Amino acid sequence: MSSLPKNEEWRSSGSRLIGFYAVFFVAWGALFTGVLYWEISHYLGTVAERTLLQRAHYYQKVDDSNLLAELAASEAYSTPGIDAYGLFAPDGTHVAGDLLKLRSNLPDDGQVHYLERGLSIALPSTETRSSYALLARRADGHILILARDGGSISAVGGIIEQALMWGLSLSLIPGLIGWRLLRRRPLRRVKRLQLCTESIVSGNLAERLPLSTRRDELDMLANAVNTMLDHIEQLMHEVKSVCDGIAHDLRTPLTRLRARLYQLQQLPLAREHKQTLNQAFEESESIMVRFQGLLRVAELEDIRRRCAFAPFPIMALLKQAHEFYEPMALDRAQTLSLDIPSDCPRVYGDSSLLFEALVNLLDNAIKFTPQGGHIQLRGSIKDAAVIIEVVDDGAGIPEADRRHVIRRLYRGEGSQINPGHGLGLSLVAAIVKLHGYTLDLHPGASDRGTRVLIHCPMFSAQATD
Amino acid sequence: MSNALVIEDDQVTAEIIVAELQRHGFSSKWAATGRDGLALAIAGGYDAITLDRMLPDFDGLTIVSTLRSLGIQTPVLMISALSDVDERVLGLRAGGDDYLTKPFSAVEMVARLDALLRRTAADPSNPHLSCGNLRLDLVEHKLTRNDEDIQLLPTEFKLLNFLMRSAGQLVTRTMLFEGVWGYHFDPGTNIIDVHIGRLRKKLESDKDSPVIHTIRGAGYVLATKK
Asked: Taking a contact as any Cβ pair under 8 Å apart, which residues of chain B between 49 and 108 contact chain A?
């Protein structure tokens, strides 16, 4: 199963989509206005060029002697500040017109040229502007320059630029606000769904994902998950009722079998018959023990069983478990040491079940540690939690098996020589899970033996649920 | 002769219970339904009742709580096929005196019923127990044998106390675990054997001392030597 890193913050797919859309929209707007600008400026340029050529053509036909009068007369009709002219003597000195200076960068070819820096005009606004200009040399050597201002094109460009800015800001600002909203609200909803699924994973199978009235894609998904949960719950219920049915159906015949064998045992029998009967009785006994164990794990896996939960002092329980098992360790020449702190924190749970878990852990530790071995039962306090440790220096559990040993009926390869029902650790796991504690298996000191850790949160008056 | 009422809907189980009770000197009466059982129990005349937790007509809990509300204090041993661990708590809370889960052993059932009967006869004002040449002081927590002190650990004291209260009677391992340690699960046979073994060693140095016998597959009996 793959899972994403937990600490990274979740992002919204809606905000990503709107981000893409904004970038696309801006790019499209810029392209559109660019084309518009280019088309308009091209058109205006052509108009300016043609007007200049027309004027040049007209003055070409005018005699040099009449030129000054004609220029003054016809240019009076032209738009001031847009159209301009200048007449210069062959040596470049100004003769007439608004244009005061001859520019060297204007080629002497009778063609229209676009000048970026423009020409100086004798007008109050002395700034140089871009312009279209034409230089025509007269027959008498005079130089006539006709010009048309290119500023109108820049003005059009400015207008288009402004339009673009307005358009972008008007669409981007609501877009950004929308992005924030789209980022936060669906994420909040998804977070609620996440909390809900966590609760379901922790065993509250009756819980369902919340649905909104919007009937959107999240609801569609949540609804699908809920349908799935209904189905899973029903299946689990069926499995449980089948198991309960089998258990119930087996209880009565097993009780009868045992009782019949017992009745038989009370009769006067031949020696060899008696022996076989005893064996049969012992077998039925061992079936019963396993069967009871299985039923017990099944019961404990039902998370709702919490009616006997109360706060209790955990260290006293460790002490009792140590007293209970010390004689057995001594019989096997093992040392069972107890290491608990002097203060006595309380944890919330069923002390009887936890004692059962400790009994199973110590029983396993003693069983799987050879004669003369060491077993430690430790209780320690760390960060508002009590940590119970059972450490032995026995055979240990191979790393590959560690996850399996808490399953029902699992037994490692090496443990076949020892008797046991293989239920011990799965029972412990079920008890730990019922309490909401955590169970960890590690190798013991210097990789020998087993170290079992149970992490129990300390009881505080507010933390009861 | 003690008189027992068996309320049990399964005929085979009922026959087994009745046969086993008869072998241990009980005369018993079988009621197959909750209604009959309740009527017989109210009519009285029984020293103990075994009660199935699940009957077709009545819930075992209802029967026992009805009896208690009528002031009938006959000891009730509840027998249940219900797997839930909480059922035990519910059964005892309703007024049952002991609780046994199916499948159970006949030995266990009789031993528990015996214990229930003796419990009604126990004298709480008696500050010491005696068995053979052993004398256990319940106030001073001291064991003496012919005026000689024997040192006991707290667990050993509790064990011996339990065994001496039931001297001459069978005590099963689960009964000991419940009585001495106060827990109701099966701790496995070995560990109780170890504790009994240690206590036995302390008692066996004197040849006239009572002895703890192990009854194979059943439990222990503290018996005086004859």
From this structure: 81, 83-86, 89, 101-107
CA distance A168 to A188: 30
Interface contact B185-A307, CB threshold 8 A: no
Nearest to A326 by CA among A359, A355, A370: A359
Residues of A in contact with B23 (CB under 8 A): 266
Residues of chain A contacting B198 with CB distance shorter than 8 Å: 327
Chain A residues in contact with B84 by the CB 8 A cut-off are: 299, 305
Collapsing DSSP to helix, strand or coil, A284 comes out as helix
How is domain A10-199 classified at the architecture level of CATH?
2-Layer Sandwich (3.30)
Across the interface, do A256 and B16 touch by the CB < 8 Å criterion?
yes
- Residues sharing a CB contact under 8 Å with residue A178, sequence separation 6 or more, in sequence order: A18
- Partners of residue A259 in chain B, C-beta under 8 Å: 13, 16, 20, 105-106
**From the CA of B83, how many Å to the nearest CA of chain A?**
7
Compare A110 and A56 and report the one with higher pLDDT. A56
Cα distances (Å, whole numbers) of residue A315 to A97, A318, A456, B45: 110, 5, 12, 48
Q: Is the dihedral angle over the CA atoms B193, B196, B197, B198 positive or is it negative?
A: positive
- The answer for B221, left when phi > 0, alpha when psi is -120 to 50, beta otherwise, is beta
> Which residue in the set B85, B104, B194 is minimally distant from A255, CB to CB?
B104
A310-463 fold? Heat Shock Protein 90 (3.30.565)
User: A266 and chain B: CB distance < 8 Å anywhere?
Assistant: yes
Non-local CB neighbours of A103 within 8 Å, separated by 6+ positions: A115, A119, A133, A145
Half-sphere exposure of B77 (CA within 13 A, CB side): 26
Indicate yes or no: CB of B16 within 8 angstroms of CB of A291: no
CA angle centred on B214, ends B211 and B217, rounded to 5° = 165
Q: Are strands B134-137 and B142-145 parallel, antiparallel or unpaired?
A: antiparallel
For the residues A107-119, what does the mean pLDDT come to? 74
Q: How far apart are the first and last CA of chain A?
A: 31
Superfamily of domain B2-121: Response regulator (3.40.50.2300)
- For chain B, give the number of residues: 226
Nearest by CB to A258, from B89, B105, B191: name it: B105
DSSP strand pairing (B98-101 vs B76-80):
parallel
- Given an 8 Å threshold on Cβ–Cβ distance, is A305 in contact with B84? yes
d(CA B4, CA A455): 49
Q: Are A206 and A200 in contact (CB under 8 A)?
A: no
User: From CA A359, how far away is CA A263, in angstroms rounded?
Assistant: 33
Assign A418 a pLDDT band (cuts: 50, 70, 90). very low
User: Could you tell me where in chain B the CATH 1.10.10.10 domains are found?
Assistant: 128-223
What SS3 class is residue A95? strand
Q: Is A258 on the interface with B (CB under 8 A)?
A: yes
Cα distance between residue B135 and residue B128, in whole Å: 7
Pick the CATH number of B128-223 from 1.10.238.10, 2.102.10.10, 1.20.1600.10, 1.10.10.10: 1.10.10.10
**What value of ipTM does the predicted structure carry?**
0.83
Pair B133, B101: CB distance under 8 Å: no
Summarize pLDDT for A349-392 with one digit per residue, the tens. Answer: 888 889 999 998 998 888 888 898 899 999 999 888 899 999 98
pTM above 0.90, yes or no: no
